[in-house]
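Help wanted!
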Amino acid sequence: MSVYTKPILRFGLITPALFNCVLLAGELAGLGKLNSIRQQKEEQYQEQTQRLAAMKKLEADLAPRREVFKGQKTLLEADPGPLFSRVIDAILPKYKTIELERSGLVFPLDRGRVAREVKTDAARVKSSFQGGMGPMQETLLQVESLMPQAVLEELKLTRKADALLTQREFLVLEITHTCWKAGGEKP
Amino acid sequence: MLTISDPSELKPADIYRQACTVASKTSRATDSHWYRMPEELAWQWHVWFDGGREVCSATYSKNSNTWKAGPPLPLASLTTGEGVSEILGELISTLYFSEKPKALGVVLHVADEFTLAEIAQASDASAESNEDYNHLRYNLVDEPREVLADRDVSTEANSWRLLPFWGASASQPRATAIALSRSREAFLQKLLACGEAARIPVRVTVTSAAVECLTALPLLKPDLQGGLLVAFSFYKFTAVFALSATGELLTARSLSHRGGASLPSGFGDILWTMAVGAELEEPRVLLLAPREEAVKAAAEELEMYSMTRHGLRVEALAYGSVPALSQVPGQRPEFLSYETSAKEPVLHAAGGIVSSTTYQSLWKGWAHQNFMDTARLDLQYPAQRDLKLLRFSSWFVYLLVFSLVATGGYGTWSLFSAMSHPSWKLTSEEMKQTQLKHGLLLEEKRQIDVTENLLRGRSKGWVTLEFLLQLFPEDSGVRVETFQYNAEAARPAPAKAGTPNAKSAGIVRTWKLKGLAKPKALELLSTLNSQRGLAALFDRVAEVTGDEMYRAAPTRQLTIALTQGRNGRFDAQAGAGQLARDPSLAFPFSFDATVTQTLSERDDLSLPLDKPF
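Answered by r_m:
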C-alpha cells in the first residue's frame, strides 16, 4: 500500500460514495413521498370519478321518478282522514241509498295492527257502509286508487235484514284502513 | 508542465489531488510501460560517453533484436540538456525503429569515471551470501553514509552502487562501492519531463560501463578460462578485474590515465600486485580496448615489463576484432548485455566463467544497477495499482452520480407526470362537495324507494271483495253469512348480535268465512280445502285483480282450516214463501273456514319498517 492508497480510498471512494449515498437516500425518500402523495391523489381521483359516474347513473335513475315521488309525497303529507271523507263524499252521490249508504266514519287513535311495527307515521280510518256488493266494491276501488297510502286492515261483511221487512236483505260492511302519512315518529 | 511534490510532505487531500492530476495529465493510469525497467522496454536508446569528444548513441529494438546508430547527441547536451525535446521527438518517430515507439527506455552508459569506494568494515564483514549482498545493496542506495567507510561523502554530487566480490576470501574485502557523478541526471530529468509532457513513457537508467564490459566478457571471448586479470581500457581510466580460476570476481581496481596517456602509469606493477593479491598462479592478463593500435601499444608495454620485471602472460583484444560486436553501433561491449538473444545462452551455459556466481549474478541484474535513484522518483508518483484504484473509484462515483441523476430525472418525470394528471388538481373541497351531492342523491333515492315500496298494494278492500266473489261465484250453492278479513304486521324477530336490524316485517292476512252450503257446493268446499285448490284460487284472484299479494312465492305460506256440519235449520219441506223469508232453510250443510296467508320478512312485499322521509 503506497502513500497514495489511503487518500485515494478516502477522498476518491469513501467520501463521494457516502455523499452520493446520502443524496440518493434523500432522493429516494422524496420519490417515496411523491409516490405516496401521487397514489393517494390518484385513489381520491378514482373515487371521485367513480362517485361522479355513480351519481350520473343515480341521476338517470331518479330523474323520471321524481315527478311521481312528488305526487306521492304530497299524498303522504296530506291528512288522510279528511281526504278519505272527501273521496267518499264525492262517490256516494252516484248511488241510491238502497245501493250504498255510509253508516259511519270514525278515526281511531291507536295505530292498529298493521302500523304497530312500522316507524312511518299512520292514521286509521274506520268506515261503515250498507248496501249491495257491487257498489261497495266499486267504491273501495275508487277510494283505494285515489289513496294508495290506504292499507286495508280489517273488513267485516255481514248480512242484515230490515227489522220491519220494508226492504230486502242487505249487506253491512265495516272497513278499517291504515293510511300512511308523512310526519314524526310513531307515538 | 506537471509539478510533482513529494507526497510524504503533503496533506491527504493534496495527495489525492496530485494523484488525480497525474491520472488526468499523464498516461500513467493507462500505460503499463511507465512501470517497467528501461531494459524491459521494446524500444531503447543507449547513450555511451567516455569523456572524449564523441558520444556514442544507439537505438535497440528488442522485438527485432536490431541495433541502429542513434540520433547524434552533442556532449554539451549531456550537461545542459539542450535539444532534448527535439531528440526525443526523433526517437519516438519511426526514424530509428520499425514501428512508432509507445515508450522509450534510455540507458546512459557512463564510461568517463569508475571510482571505487571502500565499504565500512562492519558492513563488509557481514556480507557472506547473495542475500546479504542484496541487503547491503539497498542500504547503500538508501543510506550510503551508513555503508561507506568514508562518511563525509556528498550524496547530492555522487551516487554509489555495490559491486560484490563473489570470489573474495574471508581475509579480503567482500565488496566495493562504485561511485558515479550525478552531473548527468539533469539531462535525464529533462528527458523524463519531455516524455511526461508528450504522454510517452520514458524510463531512464544510468549504468557503469566498466561493470557492463566485465559482464559482456563471455560474449567477447567465449573460450576464456578463469584465473586472470581483465583490464578494460577507457579514455580516462582502465578498469582491472581479477577473476579466480572458476571465474569468480576477486577484486577490482580503477586506474586513472594521467597526462593524456592511454594506460595508467606503473601499469605492470599494479597488475603484478593485483595478481599476487589475488593469489593467481602464472598471472595472465587480458587487455581489452576499442582501438587496435592502443591494444598493441599496451601489449608491447606489458611484454616489456614481463621481460624486465615479473612474468605476465598478456593477451590483447581490440573490440573491432570481436564478431559479436560487428552489428553493435560504436562496437561497444556495454550494449551486448541488453540483447535478448545474448542473455539466455549465458544464463543457461554450463562450464567456463559464465557458470560462476559472479556472472550469473551480473547477468541477473547486478550489472545493470541504476545509479540514478529513479525508484525514489517513482515513489513520488502513484503506483499503477493506485491509479487503477483511482480509475475504479472514478467509475464507481460516475455510477453513483448516474444513479443520482437517473433517480433525480425519474423523480422529476414522476412529479411532472403526477402534476399533469387530473388527480393533482382535485381539491378536498371539490371532493367534499361531490360527496355531499352524492349523499343527497342517495338519500333521495332511499326516500323514493321506501315511499314506492310503502305505497305498493298490500291489502286492498276491493280485491278482498273480489276474493269472496271468486271463492263462491253466483249459483255456487253457498250462502256466506259472515265474512271477515284481517291484516296485521308480523313482529320482526329480535336482531342477533352482530347482525343488522330487520328492515321489513312480514304480514299475516286472515280470511274468515261462515256460511251454508247445498250439496252441489260440497265439491267446491272440498277443492278449497286443499293446498292445490287454495293456490289455484289465489292465482285466479291475482290474475283477475293484478294484485301481486295473491301470487304464490316461496316466501309465502297458505293454510286453511275448514269445518263442515249440518244446518240445523234446514227444512227439506219448506215452501217458497218460507224460503223467501228465511233462505237458510234451503241449505242442508253449514261450514266454517279460515284461510291464512303468511308473508315472511324476506318477501318482496313485506312491510318496510323505515320512514320514507
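OP: Thanks! One thing I noticed: Chain B has 19 helices and 19 strands.
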